[in-house]
Automatic annotation (TrEMBL):
NCBIfam families: PRK00522.1
Species of the source: Formosimonas limnophila
Gene Ontology molecular function, alphabetical: thioredoxin peroxidase activity
Oxidoreductase found in the keyword field: yes
Family recorded in the similarity comment: Belongs to the peroxiredoxin family. Tpx subfamily.
Class of this enzyme: oxidoreductase
Active site: C60
Name of protein: Thiol peroxidase
Annotated gene: tpx
InterPro entries per UniProt: Redoxin (IPR013740), Thioredoxin-like_sf (IPR036249), Thioredoxin_domain (IPR013766), TPX (IPR002065), Tpx_CS (IPR018219), Tpx_Peroxidase_subfamily (IPR050455)
Pfam families, A to Z: Redoxin
Lineage of source species: Bacteria, Pseudomonadati, Pseudomonadota, Betaproteobacteria, Burkholderiales
Extra remark beyond the main annotation: The active site is a conserved redox-active cysteine residue, the peroxidatic cysteine (C(P)), which makes the nucleophilic attack on the peroxide substrate. The peroxide oxidizes the C(P)-SH to cysteine sulfenic acid (C(P)-SOH), which then reacts with another cysteine residue, the resolving cysteine (C(R)), to form a disulfide bridge. The disulfide is subsequently reduced by an appropriate electron donor to complete the catalytic cycle. In this atypical 2-Cys peroxiredoxin, C(R) is present in the same subunit to form an intramolecular disulfide.
Subunit structure: Homodimer.
Length: 166
């Protein structure tokens, strides 16, 4: 298991993010239409998996906006945001913000948090996801993996984009 900080307090996660060089674990998440989306749906494409607790927090909203902006200039990159939010909240946010370049997906009926080691196991946010980024290449291999040390901090966008070669 890994540890992150939440309001200065150490909080354990359910495991560890997939390591660079590993095959990214398959996932099945829920989209705005309540349909299933799998990692394998993006086979042959580069994917940024941006993981966070809730779209209704400032840092999560900022990271979604930032990735939306960054990928607009790079149409070959797919960004998938993952949180425990219901798809309705994600849809509302994207509509209000004009977010069109990311796939906002919910982990609410999946094992994603366990499979990626990102479920917070204790503290006031127990059960939601920690913040991190996993970048997957066209062959499904992890080429970048970042668990953000402090849940309220933004991820290293530059490092994720550099892993993609942009």
């Amino acid at each position: 298991m890994a540890q992150v900080l939440l309001r200065g307090n150490p909080i354990n996660t359910s495991g560890d993010l997939p390591a660079v060089g590993a095959k990214a674990p398959e996932f099945t998440l829920v989209n705005a239409q309540l349909g299933e989306v799998k990692l394998s749906d993006f086979a042959g494409k580069k994917v940024v998996v941006s993981i966070f607790p809730s779209i209704d927090t400032p840092t999560c909203a900022t990271s979604t906006r930032k990735f939306n902006q960054e990928v607009a200039a790079h149409p070959g990159i797919n960004v998938v945001t993952v949180s425990a939010d219901l798809p309705f909240a994600l849809t509302r946010f994207c509509a209000a913000e004009g977010i069109e370049n990311v796939h906002t997906l919910s982990s609410f009926r999946s094992t994603f948090g366990q499979d990626y080691g990102m479920t917070l196991t204790e503290g006031p946010l127990a059960g939601v996801l920690a913040r991190g980024v996993v970048v997957v290449d066209e062959s499904g291999q992890v080429i970048h993996s970042e668990l953000v040390n402090n849940v309220s901090d933004e991820p290293d966008y530059a490092a994720a984009l550099k892993a993609l070669g942009v």
